[in-house]
Amino acid sequence: MQTIDVADAELASLLVLDSVQAPGDPLRVVAHLRDGRNFSLTLLTLDGLRRYLTGTPAYVAQRVLVVRDPSEAAVLEAVRMAIAQGIERFGVLDAALEE
Question: Could you tell me the pTM of the whole model?
Answer without folding.
Answer: 0.85
